[in-house]
Design a protein that fits this description.
By secondary structure, the protein is an alpha+beta fold. The protein is built from two helices and nine strands; from the N terminus they run E-H-E-E-E-E-H-E-E-E-E. Strands 5, 6, 7, 8 and 9 form a five-stranded mixed beta sheet that branches. It is globular. The two termini are about 20 Å apart. The mean pLDDT is about 95.
């Protein structure tokens, strides 16, 4: 059996607001808001479990998406006026990158987590 990531905990100042932001940008829905986690189902095998943490440390989350999903997410990021950029250290330069024959960009969520979307996976699969 292949190793499959089932869920990960995303530290957040406000778990519900953070889960709603993530779900809105990625075109997903918040699965559960009560209890210890606000949960967003990312795909059939992965959930992001947002948990309250007074001072969350920044994390990096990268997503391989389709060209259509890229256009939709990029449109929502721009519509919200969120800074975005072409690299992890220049994620506010207003540019997208083109690597490995695809497109991608970085942007921050309200907790300072660096989110990346890419149409060609870094893993080369």
């Amino acid at each position: 059996m292949a190793v499959v990531l089932d869920h990960t905990i995303v530290p957040a100042k406000d778990k519900v607001a953070s889960a709603k932001f993530f779900a809105e940008i990625f075109g997903l829905t918040v699965k559960r808001e009560q209890g210890h986690f606000a949960q967003v189902k990312v795909n059939e095998s992965l959930t992001f479990d947002f948990a309250d943490e007074p001072e969350p440390h920044s994390q990096h989350y990268a997503f391989h998406i389709s060209e259509a999903e890229f256009d939709a997410i990029f449109g929502r990021v721009k519509a919200k006026g969120l800074p975005y950029g072409s690299g992890p250290y220049n994620h506010t330069d207003g540019q997208i990158y083109t690597r490995r024959g695809g497109r991608g960009f970085y942007f921050e969520d309200p907790n300072g987590h660096l989110l990346e979307v890419m149409t060609v996976p870094e893993t080369g699969s």
